[in-house]
Amino acid sequence: MGDTVQRIETIVATIPRDTPYLGGLRPGEQANSRGYFVRQGNRTVYPTMDRSVLVRIETRDGAVGWGETYGIVAPGAVVAIIEDLLTEFVVGRDPWDVAAIHDQLYDLMRVRGYTGGFYLDALAAIDIALWDICGKLAHKPIAKLLGGQRRGSIPSYVSGLPRATLAERVELAAEWQARNFSLFKFAASVADDGVIPELRALRERLGDTAQIAVDLHWMYSPIEAIATIRQMEPFGPWFAEAPCKPEDIDGQAQIAANVGVPMALGEEWRTVFDARPRLERRCAAILQPEMGHTGITQFMRIANAAEAHHCQVIPHATIGLGIFLAASLQASAAIGSLPAHEFQHSVVERTDRFITGDMTCADGLYAVPTGPGLGVAPSDEAIALFKS
Ligand code: MG
Asked: How far is the CA of 239 from the centre of ligand 1 (A)?
């Protein structure tokens, strides 16, 4: 009989930060007693610290796989779902049945409407850990198990530009350009002088060879988004992300059909069921699955659906410890049309301390980890710190 899952453990990783993600607090923004504040630009809650949920799965024969999911708000919800509900349905299973296990766990709650959100985040962490075990048992990086590794490095785009003023954000982008990064994205919700001046200033400073995307942070009505993106067109944006409310499929399609800039969608999706109606309506030219939400199984299903609709995949990269980032790079290495991957420098800059393995991002390129499975794991220091 083959090896089977014996034990599942969860760890919440909390890492303080000097400045919140996307930069310091703006006027009217104030952290509450739980460390949360609301960005006035897009009315979305953000934490003042970094946080994610790690999952460690161990097999009867001693193989260990690591998973990680999105935990920036209420990480205890995901931990409770894994510990109270999912663990007993995974213990005893063959890790090679990873996609079947994912689908069976999805079935447990689908008719009750738990087809996204925290429930799918919990499934994502388990899915990544099971794929990690498969890679380790096969002595191969996960990319090799996903149809084949197409690339060992992936162009990275600098995301967020977390500085207080437009001048400082432009300078930060120029600093990254001097380090051989040529792809950038800025965020509308913190573009205090407006998105058109922000794009113009970045274009003037970075030159024509830079690719500059804009994350519109779901802030506009479809009509406003069309007008805004058309005003951006003279400055050559690379793509425009999340232009209107995420539920507004008609609005997404309307925008995509009426501007000359590729639309990018997908960071909040959990499954291919989120992607499918938007692909059919041609709402986007670029899909941005977030591994911390999808896990590898659904990430690859979204990528395969993108390919069937002649769309590109440029994965989203949210804040984590680096485990789901490694999973995203492994999957990205196996996807056909994948021109770039988001880069959060605050995550990669601390991997020396918190992550083992050879995942790096330098000179505008990620190096896909080369070890078996994910090719990375939490360091002893990280485990000691976060378990205490
Ligand atoms: Mg975004």
From this structure: 12
How many other C-beta atoms are found inside a 10 Å radius of the C-beta of residue 33? 5
| Tokens 């005893």 -> residue | 92
Task: Specify the CATH class of 5-140 in words.
Answer: alpha beta
> Region 284-303: what's the mean pLDDT?
98
For range 309-336, the mean pLDDT: 97
Q: How far is ligand 1, taken at its centre, from the CA of residue 66, in Å? A: 26
Question: 7 C-alpha to center of ligand 1: Å?
Answer: 35
Span 258-273, pLDDT tens digits = 999 999 999 999 999 9
Place of tokens 């979305």: 44
**What is the pTM (predicted TM-score) of this model?**
0.97
Q: What is the distance between the alpha carbons of residues 192 and 207, in angstroms, rounded to a whole number?
A: 22
Q: Which residues have a Cβ under 8 Å from the Cβ of 372 and sit 6 or more positions away?
A: 135, 136, 138, 139, 140, 141
**Where, residue-wise, is CATH 3.30.390.10 in the chain?**
5-140
Residue 242 alpha carbon to ligand 1 centre in Å: 7
CATH T-level fold of 145-373:
TIM Barrel (3.20.20)
The phi-psi region of residue 236 (left if phi > 0; otherwise alpha if psi is between -120 and 50; otherwise beta) is: left
CA of 241 to the centre of ligand 1 (A): 6
Instruction: State the distance from the centre of ligand 1 to the C-alpha of 215, rounded, in angstroms.
Output: 5
The Å distance, Cα 267 to ligand 1 centre, comes to: 6
- The two tokens of residue 158 are 């600098």
Cα 238 to middle of ligand 1, angstroms: 14
